Amino acid sequence: MSDRELRLVVFETDIGWVGLMHRDKVLHRVRLGFNTMLDAALAFKEHCVGPDDPNAWEKKIIRRFTKSLSMGAAKSQAKNAFCYDDIEVDDEGLTDFQRKVVTAVRNLGFGETASYGEVAKRIGHPGAARAVGTVMSKNRFPIVIPCHRVLSSNGIGGFSSPRGVGTKRELLAIEGHEIG
């Protein structure tokens, strides 16, 4: 890991304010669904980093996030914008099981959903639905690792955002799902 400092950019989208923290274009954390810019910035206070003016790479990412999180975007536009396979995430500290879960969820396509149990089966750990849920509850990269696409077998499941499952419903609606 580089000795360069962490950078934080905060920006507004249709589903609320987003904070994106990275070092040398490797994401360390994404937090979304805040009501204000201040709330989004304060969510990173434990990292002792304040918002920066966006550089060229950050502006590109902001445009992509803003486009994909647009409630009015045509599904084809959102689908193309919702692909973040080219963005590297910091997976340091993850166990092999957690990496398998993150990889499986990252491979869920736009508009595709799976239950926690289905993800567990896909990674060769049938019966580990709760463990998959635990990994998703600690996902530091929502949208990039699209945990909103992982649902409970009997409903929507949880979502760690200031607005909780309301944000998850908005994300699913952008992809064409209406979850009660």
Topology record:
Elements: E1 7-13, E2 16-23, E3 26-34, H1 37-42, H2 56-68, H3 75-81, E4 88-89, H4 96-106, E5 114-115, H5 116-122, H6 129-137, E6 150-151, H7 165-174
Helix pairs in contact: 2-3, 5-6
Q: How is this structure best described in words?
A:
This protein has helices at 37-42, 56-68, 75-81, 96-106, 116-122, 129-137, 165-174, and strands spanning 7-13, 16-23, 26-34, 88-89, 114-115, 150-151. It is an alpha/beta fold and 180 residues long. The protein has a four-stranded mixed sheet with strand order 1-2-3-4. The protein has a two-stranded parallel sheet with strand order 5-6. A hairpin with a 2-residue loop joins strand 1 (7-13) and strand 2 (16-23). The protein is globular and about 45 Å long. The relative contact order is 0.15.
